Amino acid sequence: MKALNSFGFPVLRFNFRGSGLSEGDHANGIGEVEDVRAALNWLENEFALPVIFAGFSFGAAIGSRVACADDRVRALIGLGLPVFPAEGQPDRGVFDFEYLRACVKPKLFVSGARDQFAPPGKLEALVNTFAEPKKLVRIEAGDHFFEGRLRELRDVIEAWVRETINL
Asked: What is the pLDDT of residues 117-127, one digit of tens each?
């Protein structure tokens, strides 16, 4: 959020239904797709600007699905993209990234080198199947939440935006 805002982009940060203090119930990736569409609609009505979508973990998995298909979205950033769901959590197609094989929008994926939901090798193999342009960055010693590594995360995002998006 801070990295994108540093370029002057308006930023909308929200929780999916049933997360944090939001109302409603978690909908296993089905209703959350509608949450992302509603957020994109709100951004369009408020700002009428191209969108750089950024999502974290489950939000990256759900949001990138919507963002790839939406012409208002210019580029995608997936932080902590999970290769598989947390133990005991249903998949329900959330972790099927087939759509990224045809998504030709610029894509940045950033993951901690110790991310338990994207083990070394598995995330690289998955991202290798995605359409170009794409970039994968692993932050050394970073976990799924980038604890203690937020400055590095911000630096990676800012550098990618500078080299990828014509500002």
From this structure: 998 899 999 99
Entry pTM: 0.89
pLDDT band at 22 (very low <50, low <70, confident <90, very high): low
Cβ distance 94 to 61 under 8 Å?
Answer: yes
**Residue 23, class by beta-carbon neighbours within 10 Å (0-12 exposed, 13-18 middle, 19+ buried)?**
exposed
Question: Domains of the chain by range and CATH?
Answer: 2-164 (3.40.50.1820)
Greatest pairwise CA separation for the chain in angstroms:
43
39: which 2 tokens? 């957020």
Alpha helix segments (H runs only) across the chain = 2-5, 31-47, 58-69, 122-128, 150-164
State both tokens at 7: 């370029």
Residues with Cβ within 8 Å of 160's Cβ and at least 6 positions away in sequence, in order, are: 77, 108, 135, 137
Length of the chain: 167
